[in-house]
Design a protein that fits this description.
Elements (H helix, E strand, L loop, with lengths): L5 H13 L13 H15 L10 H13 L1
Length: 70
């Protein structure tokens, strides 16, 4: 996944909503609420270090795929 297009961000927002981490509209903008939801998901579901300032997308994608297989 590349989060650079609005449709891909909408898919991410929908996923985060279904997982219980995002409660806003699916507008397709990778804004602060989306970033916070993504970080909360990664910390809670993937044992992501809370001190990690950046998101490594290959690892984040792998975590999402593992989550979806549960």
């Amino acid at each position: 996944w590349l989060w650079s297009t609005w449709e891909n961000v909408r898919v991410l927002q929908s996923f985060l909503n279904e997982a219980g981490y995002y409660n806003f509209s699916f507008h397709g903008i990778y804004d602060e609420n989306t970033q916070i939801a993504m970080r909360r998901f990664l910390i809670s579901e993937c044992n992501w270090p809370q001190t990690n300032q950046g998101i490594l997308w290959p690892q984040a994608r792998a975590c999402i795929q593992e989550f979806l297989q549960k």
